[in-house]
Design brief:
By secondary structure, the protein is of the alpha+beta class. It has one domain: Roll (Secreted effector protein ssei fold). Helix content is 29%, strand content 20%. It contains 4 helices and 5 strands. It has a 5-stranded antiparallel sheet with strand order 4-3-2-1-5. Helix 1 packs across helix 2.
């Protein structure tokens, strides 16, 4: 089995697991939980957990979590942003219109307020998500 096939298999497992836990079909607000679970399942391949957020004054903070591993972007919650997104994204190159995967996809105004943080271990993920809404955080 290739690394891409392994990644896709693990991502599908996590997506199915989240749905079995009562998550909505588009996995709205489940990105941190699902990304954490994927991270743990792919730990042997040295994945990187990403948290990308935009914090503009006087507006609610927007944020998204996903995984990069072996050169692939992995996201099982992308449908919450665009119903045309695949339910499971395993791609070397993210779509060009999605702020939630890359600062290159943000408008200049959004880029000014953009933050991208990375975590390389379970402990670092826990620190990164400490201020994340409690109902959207993984069960440690």
């Amino acid at each position: 089995m290739s690394i891409k096939e392994t990644i896709f298999k693990e991502a599908r497992f996590v997506r199915d697991w989240a749905l079995s836990k009562g998550a909505p079909k588009d996995l709205f607000c489940w990105c941190a939980i699902c990304s954490y679970e994927i991270f743990k399942r792919l730990e042997r391949f040295n994945p990187v957990f990403y948290l990308i957020s935009i914090s503009k004054p006087f507006l609610p903070r927007e944020g998204h979590c996903y995984i990069r591993c072996a050169g692939y972007l992995i996201d099982v919650t992308a449908r919450q942003f665009n119903k045309r997104n695949e339910p499971i994204v395993v791609s070397r190159k993210p779509p060009s219109n999605a702020w939630y995967w890359s600062e290159k996809n943000c408008s200049a105004i959004d880029r000014e307020y953009l933050s991208i943080k990375r975590a390389y271990s379970v402990e670092e993920i826990q620190d990164l998500l400490r201020t994340w809404p409690s109902d959207q955080r993984p069960d440690w």
